[in-house]
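Course assignment 3, question 2. Fill in each field.
Student: A.L.
Task: Predict the tertiary structure for the chain below.
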Amino acid sequence: MTSNRLWAGAALLAALGGVAALAVADRSEAPVAARPPAERPTLALLTSLPLLFGESFSLDSGGSPALTRLDQRYKVVPIGVADAASLNDQTLLLMAHPRAQPAEALAELDQWVRGGGRVLLLADPRLDWPSARPVGDRLRPPPAFADTGLLAHWEVRLSGPDPSDATSAGRLESRRCQISADGLVAHCAVGKGHATIIADADFLNGEPQGLDLLIAELARLESR
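Answer field:
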């Protein structure tokens, strides 16, 4: 585990607490149990990261450890854009370092959350995800979260990592959302729904502690 991920995992642990803290204290069981297939709710997934098929995007790449963990609790439904058509009948959305969304889709996403939707947004201002694809390749994840106004609309400000800090995670500020872990996590009530924003995505890259925390935070959103 890199120092970046160690820092992110520790900060997320402090932020999420509860179930996640118990999981790390007792590594004999996962923080949130797997569900039988018939009881798994749908989770919409929008991501630029190679979580579904690996970086080669081939059907034989086997996906990722993150997808394996998600599949134990959810029926994962990939979507290409966070618009009304894609979010219709969905209640839970994971946006894992997504590409820039069209303005119309952002407006529809906002309406969906305000109507009762729940979203976990991983918005990394400086992605530290290894890739064999050259910079500029359209299949390579963007180097930074492309915020085109959604966070400001939710009254959240995302800033990049401190240049003197060895970690790549960013910092969140807000006057209306609950900010945890020294600015790493924001929990926001948005209308009838909820948005959790984490200023990092590198912790998703296969580290067990990070995946425990991902599942714990999704479970927290489900309970809201």
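Instructor remarks: Confidence is low (pLDDT under 50) at residues 15-30. Strands lie at 42-47, 75-78, 92-96, 118-122, 156-159, 171-174, 178-180, 185-190, 193-198.
Grade: pending
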